[in-house]
Task: structure prediction
Amino acid sequence: MSVESRVKQEFERLAGEVQPRADGWRDVEARIRRERGVRIARSSLIAAAAVAIVFAALRLGTEQPVVLEPPPVGNGRLAFVRADPATVREGQVPATALYSVEPNGTGLRMLADGINYRSRPAWSRDGSMIAFARGDDILVANSDGSGTRTLVDCAFPTCSASHPVWLPNQTHIGFVRTEGPRVSIWVVRADGSGLADLGISFRQISDHSWSPDGRRVAVAGQRGEDGIHAIYIVRVVNGELLSTIEPPGIEIGETVAWSPDGEWLAFDAFGVEARTICRGKGIYLVRPDGSSVTPLTGLSSEAADCTDVYPAWSPDGNEIAFTRARAEFGSDGFIGDLLAIDVVSRQIRAVTSGPTLDCCPSWQPIPQ
Amino acid sequence: MIGAGREARIGILEPSRARHERLAAWYDAEYQPLLRFAYFLTADAAEAEDLVQETFVRLHRAGERVYDEGFRPYARQTLLNLRRSSLRSAFRERRAFTRIHVEGAGGDPAETGAGTDVRRALMGLTVRQRACLALRFYEDLHVRDIAETLGLSEEAVRKHIQRGLDRMRSALGEENPG
Result:
């Protein structure tokens, strides 16, 4: 029997196993009501905030806003995860290694192997160290890959640690810890001491990025039972939800990055109404209050078969590095390059190219 | 004035009610084919049901942007994106990895839904490959119709079908033609 016939036969067998529910529509209605309630509550909060801002403006009169100067840092190397496309397959762990490269694509250097796919590395604020996830653990190494040591030791299925982020205070690293159904943000000192749960729990976290003042964290994920995937701005000190970013006409993706000046968030998303250059996801910008949603990687009526993911700001805030993938995320033969886009001119340039999957960039700060 | 105000309120409420009723009609007509499609992608009854329900919530959110003639492709693309999105979460990836490598090696086939070699090979394909094969070989759609349904180019559909079949042959120990 041909493979086509066997496939057809198996689908018919699968179809015979489907058991439709008689009361499914009631559950759909309940979900819609729940989502509507969340939206109404959110709108009320926004309205209340708007009123408060107006009153504050009236009371402040002509007081000038405080403008914070961006920190004096330069752009160092780009660290990223390189995966062998032949090993990228759903449900399997691909062969990966941590690399760094100059922003112009020269000086490629391998820093560590066997690191986690889709968990971006994180440079320390002075650019001298790098944190990354391997297996279920968080590790740190010197910027050249030497001196690797385990910072957080987890053991699946008891727990799993991923998505390290070096905090603005330079002394701590934030990370996502999964333990059973609980997914939450923890911190640990760079010397491995002071492990602590921040009490910021989600149903699912795909990425997190901290404001430059370290007071807020932007989380891309699902919060609570409603299961809405959005970007949530949370106050670090008490876990208070400050705002939810879920712009209409956009399906929020998995990654988020706070700009060095704290004014913008970069994220990846599917544009339902406005397509970006890629048929898949594009890179967008939004203010931390959810306003001024802007597609960054351009709009096109003839979208190409690609997807833009994992935005990473340059330390000077002028560029965003990202991965442009050219096939299905997670499929065989998947390849992707690192690109960088100038935030003002929107000019895109290549950083890496070749038959590999270069993902999840992180830009090294160089103190001036 | 009272009448005008009432009309204005009805004007605000009516589209919402109409949208809801239209969604209910779509649900009656399309729930079973969508559930079947979701089950083809997941081989997990609870997950398939969850995907279909979430798809209808997204359709409700999309509101007036979805028309009758565009409902089927929009629903299937939404479902496919939801499935792919859910697969990307690290936790699910881990769980899938465990299922394939631990349970798949010695687990209960009835429990894992991997009752046959063909089933196991089918579930080893990517989501898009599986979706394309389902529409081609179960629903007998032509490449052009599959492309329209899934929002892909015809070339991409051909590629997904070809690669899917090649991987199936490889997994089943058959030789690839040519």
